[in-house]
Write a structure and sequence with these properties.
Two copies of one chain form a homodimer. By secondary structure, chain A is an alpha+beta fold. Helix content of chain A is about 40%, strand content about 25%. Chain A has helices spanning about 5-10, 15-25, 80, 120-125, 130-135, 185-195, 210-225, 245-260, 260-280, 285-315, 330-340, 370-380, and strands at about 30-35, 35-40, 55, 60-65, 70, 85-90, 95-105, 105-110, 140-145, 170-175, 200-205, 230-235, 240-245, 320-325, 345-355, 360-370. In chain A, the strands form four sheets. A five-stranded mixed β-sheet of chain A has the order 5-13-12-6-11. Chain A has a four-stranded antiparallel β-sheet with strand order 1-2-3-4. Chain A has a four-stranded antiparallel β-sheet with strand order 8-7-9-10. The interface between A and B is large, with 49 and 50 residues. Chains A, B: InterPro entries: Lig_Pab1020_C, RNA_ligase_dom_REL/Rnl2, RNA_ligase_Pab1020.
Chain lengths: ~375, ~375
């Protein structure tokens, strides 16, 4: 099918030239979902956010990408300077960002990159009361899919455990799916309550002048519980939220990155240790606490790297494994085809039928292959020079 | 002066087009030294090494750049695979690489980047018996300028201390200055002895089959003495040398980089920790040793960063300071003008007349300014978002 650049441009209030060049430079790509052709924005182009997905149906329906949430490196004076008067603290969950909307009479779950993920879509339909969309066709539910049994960010959460699967979804924003205009926090909570939708409960609301003191305590508690951090919001969502994360999160990111260090190390490393630098400064640590932080950082970098080198040395091929539960072989096939379209290399490590409440489902273990790490470690162990 | 691309191309056995494009892309730049125009290669172009310096005199005399020395990540099996039969171990000194040659009847000291450094040139003439060049006009002395009182890599070495100055030069290769063809290690030592030139004494010569065992012990000793590492060479220099460095060096590099983390952190970080990963693996450390290494890495990253943030917070501007000794204000002026030509930002922090043996010299403390680190830390401390 020919793509009508002019029509898309008009719909998104871009110039035709922006669309043409976006395709040429690989920033806009063609996709399809259940036979409907669509396009995805891999980077921000003017006001169109990265991750925007536009369906090539009659209306050219689209879902705007989720806006980038910027980060405070120090709580004080950042909060004081940034917010208007009050600041609402919500927990930042460690999963993956999903936007859910109804398009072409279908519920779709869109990942950060602008892809309709078949796994996430299926789960969203099972988890959510989709009646919400009948009454609010222009709104999208923005939330975090969390838990051990997801393909992107497997991290165990006790509160979403049901024995055969650890997976859940928590809404953090409700926004207009075209303009990204958010509801206020109060409106969001009212709607979630009305439709019995799961949402991220605010931890508290503070005056911006002394919020940093309370938030420091919250961060200490979340860190002790191995949780990710906080998102700080204006009650009316009049300005963009900002985020701040725990020491454990920084270390966890480093561990994950250094397990596959030639693939992920460079990109992850610097930002994570810089966050630690500012946190150590602001949390005004004594010598022992600072030393403990340094040890955590060093171990998070060194240990996974040495483990990977040892594994490759012993002939193993290192993979990043995740386990998901699907309803049928057909669903699995659809998901694997999706991964292939995204050029992800993987192997199926295990597959078993499991009893899920009163029906049977399939639990499948998939190993994501990081080629650079496997190949380069092997080469260096065999005497390859750097 | 017009540059004759065709003539340069012919002299270097490149195509005229290579020279033309090199200039256009900023890979070849124009310089001058004592009124003689010259060009420097900032990157390798075909067989012409990075750091090659060509003088636009009648002969178009040039000094080939010092070849890149590649690195072993593991000693075993790299040494076994790489060398022919024997391997000579020389200590790798932690200073800066200099090539010294005689051009236009002048001795010049060229840095890795292909610049004639006036400071280094003056010192080289004072340190070396330059009669060598009268008898060997086509050879260059390749060596390491080391010691606390140098502008590039200030690192204290006991063996080059003479009270008022810590500076010395050790030759590691003698090469044809156009072809880079090296003398054998034996020939090099004979010539150095003949002209009483300082050279890096070999630590030992080993069979390649079990060299890694001896070298591991050498590395342990050098590490305990806070020294940089080793360069491994074929006795005849029939193949390129390779290098391997100590844990202390990796940590020292990290410390230096993270003091100015927004300027140097990204580039330095990954390679240094990866070297640690392989060394920890190969040195087969027990849990305690591995934990100690992790702590060292973490401290080398975190502590300088926190120090810098604290300093900037207290209103200080962080600089990388070095102290050098020059003969006269004129020499100082020439050197500072050289730094300006290289677009280095600096401030003079102190200047004093000192007694140097039986004459007076000037000791000057120069602070190199890293703008990105100063500016960004200040911005983030004031609430700037990332």
């Amino acid at each position: 099918m020919e793509i009508d650049y002019a029509l898309i441009a008009e719909r998104l209030k871009l110039r035709e030239e922006d669309i043409r060049r976006g395709f040429k430079r690989g920033i806009i790509i063609r996709e399809e979902y259940k036979g409907v052709p669509m396009i995805a924005f891999r980077k921000k182009i003017k006001h169109i956010e990265r991750g925007t997905a536009l369906f090539l149906n009659e209306n050219l329906d689209y879902i705007m990408g989720y806006p980038k949430i910027r980060r405070a490196l120090v709580l004080n004076p950042t909060i004081k300077n940034y917010f208007i008067d009050k600041v609402v603290v919500e927990e930042k969950l460690d999963g993956y960002n999903v936007r859910i909307a109804k398009i072409n009479n279908n519920i779709v779950a869109i990942t950060r990159g602008g892809h309709v993920c078949p796994f996430t879509t299926k789960k969203a339909i099972q988890i959510l009361n989709t009646k919400f969309f009948d009454n609010n066709p222009n709104l999208m539910l923005c939330g975090e899919m969390i838990g051990l049994n997801n393909p992107y960010v497997p991290h165990y959460y006790e509160e979403v455990d049901r024995g055969w699967e650890n997976l859940g979804f928590y809404i953090f924003d409700i926004r207009d799916r075209e303009t990204n205009e958010p509801l206020s926090i109060k409106e969001k909570i009212e709607i979630c309550k009305k439709y019995n939708l799961p949402y991220v409960e605010p931890i508290g609301e503070f005056d911006k002048e002394d919020a940093h003191e309370y938030i420091k305590e919250i961060i200490d508690r979340l860190n002790a519980e191995n949780r990710e951090g906080v998102v700080l919001k204006d009650p009316d969502m009049a300005i963009n939220p900002i985020k701040y994360t725990t020491h454990k999160t920084q270390c966890g990111d480093l561990k994950a990155a250094f397990t596959f260090f030639y693939d992920l190390g460079v990109d992850f490393m610097f930002s994570r240790v810089v966050r630690e630098g500012y946190q150590a400064f602001e949390f005004n640590e004594n010598d022992d606490a600072l030393k403990k932080r340094a040890l955590d950082i060093g171990e998070s970098i060194l240990y996974p790297m040495v483990d990977t080198i040892k594994k490759v040395h012993s002939g193993e091929r290192v993979t990043e494994d995740f386990e998901i539960v699907v309803d049928s072989e057909e669903d699995l096939k659809e998901f694997l085809e999706y991964l292939k379209r995204l050029h992800m290399q993987f192997i199926i490590k295990n597959m078993e039928k499991i009893k899920a409440d009163d029906e049977y489902k399939i639990k499948v273990k998939i190993g994501k292959i990081y080629s650079a790490t496997n190949d380069k470690v092997l080469s260096h162990l065999n005497g390859g020079l750097w």
